[in-house]
Each structure stands twice: as C-alpha cells, then as structure tokens.
Amino acid sequence: MASRAPQQINAGSMADIAFLLLIFFLVTTTMDVDSGMIRKLPPPLPPNQEKVDVKHRNIFVVLVNSYDQLLVKGKPENIKNLREEAKDFLRPRSVDDPDYPETELRKIDLLGEVWKSKGVISLQNDRGTSYDMYIQVQNELAAAVRELRDEYSQDKFGVKFKKLNGDLTKAVQKAIPVAISEAEPKDVGGKK
Amino acid sequence: MSRFKKKKGKGVVEINTSSLPDIIFMLLFFFMVTTVMREITLIVHVKPPEATEVQKLEKKGLVSYIYIGPPPATKQKVLGSEPRIQLNDAYANPRDIAEFIELEREAVIETERQLITTSLKVDMNTKMGIVSDVKQELRKVGAFKINYSTRKKTEIKK
Predict the structure, then answer these.
(1) What CATH number has the domain bearing residue B90?
(2) Are the beta carbons of A131 and B117 separated by less than 8 Å?
(3) Looking at this predicted complex, what is its ipTM?
(4) Is residue B55 in some structural domain?
(5) Three-state secondary structure along chain B?
(6) For the segment B38-59, what is each residue's pLDDT rounded down to a tens digit?
(7) Cβ separation A43–B122 shorter than 8 A
(8) Is residue B75 part of a domain?
C-alpha cells in the first residue's frame, strides 16, 4: 500500500453508466407473466383403430358449430348453463340412475372406496368456430371440474381443493378426473 | 476522513451522491432478475381471449411459442387479413411446425425434453381451422403438452 492517500477515482459518472444499463434492460426485456390453460393432446390414432363403444349415457356431447352455437346432448344450449350441466353430469353418484353416467366403486389411496363416475365429456368443434368461443367452452368445462373438486374436498376435508396437500390433491384428482375428450377434427360447416 | 467533516457556516450543503450508483445498480439487478429477454418481434397481431381457469406457465426456458393471428393493420394491404402462423421471426405453414419443434427440442438438454410446453398464442378472432391444423401437427411430432395462452379474467359473481 502506498503511504500517501490513495488516489480517488471519480465515481460521479458511475451512476450514469448504471442508468444506461438500466434503461437498456428496461427496453429489451418483458415482464409479462405468461398464463394460460394447460392441456394435453392425445397421441395420434393408430391407423387401424377399432371403434371403441362407449355407452350413450356415459358421454356428454358438446358441439360448437361455425356460428359459435352450442349443442349440448342434442339440445341448443346457452354457454352460461354449460357449467352447471357439466357439473350435474360429472358428479359421482352412489345410486344408479339411467339418466346419468354409470359409476363404479374404486379404491383410491387416502380416500378409501369411492364412487367414481365413468362419464366423459366429448367436445367437438368446427373449423369455423372462433377461437374465443372454443376457449370459453374449454374454460366452462374446466371450471365445472374445478368446482366439483372443490365441493368434494370441502365435503371430505373441509377445505378447498387448492388448499389440499400434494398426496390428497392427487387422490382427489383421481376421484374426479378431467374427463374431456376432443373429437378428431371434422369439417362440417364449410369454410366461412 | 476529512471528506465527511463539514465546514460550518458555508452556504450550500452538497448531498453525498457516492451511493447513487449502488441504488441504480440495485434497480438494474432487480430488472435483470424479474424480466426476460424479448426474443422475437411479433409480426402477427395477437389479442388472447379471456378465461378464468388459468394457470401460470413455469420454466420459461422450456416453453416454445407459436403465434397465430392476422398481420398487423398496417401490413394488411399487402398481406391480407387472413390469420397466419408465426414461428420465430417469420410466417410459416402448418407443415413447418415439425421442424420448428425438432429445433426447439435440440436446444434443451435431453433430460428436460419431455417437459417442453408449446404455448399457443392465438388471436381471439381466429377460426379454429388453423388452430386444429397446428394441433394435429403437434400431435404428429409428439409435442403433447400445450398451453392455450389466455388473459386472466376475474369471475363475475352471479
């Protein structure tokens, strides 16, 4: 070390340099949080796929046409009622009712033997359906499943589904699966 | 140190600015950590639809984006208003998606390849036809994890 007082570097412009860097980062980066609905696509069908017969009462058919109109189980329907209908359909029942899907007793860890619905929601859209409508329908169906799970965990554990811990979450997910199947795309309404 | 000894009775007191760079650096680091680099410039107009049941996308490094929407209004005279697919920095066809996914896969290490999510950023006025084409392509190449990019809407109580 020098015995004299060390020479001082003028740090006055350091702030300016830091400001420049800061502004550079402000301009080149984005902060938006990407959110969305995460889905899993089914693997492609094998070419010689046999037709799988699903009982009529076990399917809840949702059709969306190129005019963004809904057909639920053969009846025109308003999207506002879709959530309730889907919930009604997917709710596991312990008594066999021919109007609703079949249920079966299933052993699930942590829950014991529970009634599980065999119902599947089949969603089919047209090439002319708007993306917005498609997302709304997906959203309503997802909301139906979420509300059912909430009800279920409220009933069993007294808390909402989100507040359950890891293993219980998986168990409830097993008891009430996201049973939404998307049909192979068809071109029925023509191009619009 | 004599720097800090103030001479009493003098007019203007100078503010010590030697910690200003540190403050700015702190801000800088905050921004560096919380933001991500803007990777591409959008050449399609995307206004995602709104939904209530949204999840946050984790691990941004493992997300590849496909944008679908009409060209921006200023270019519609030349390019038309039909929705188009944007991959990286250019317009693309559905059949280019296989190659795009392959390149995205090669960019990450092998153990994480299964975790790649394809985020579809689609304009809300797009027709499902083009989206279905993209989804079929994704199914063919085995990119099953997808995300429909949506804006969060708070639910209106009925």
Answers:
(1) 3.30.420.270
(2) no
(3) 0.76
(4) yes
(5) CHHHCCCCCCCCCCCCCCCHHHHHHHHHHHHHHHCEECCCCCCCCCCCCEECCCEECCCHHHEEEEEEECCCHHHHHHHCCCCEEEECCEEECHHHHHHHHHHHHHCCCHHHHHHCEEEEEECCCCEHHHHHHHHHHHHHHCCCEEEEECEECCCCCC
(6) 667 888 888 888 888 888 887 7
(7) no
(8) yes
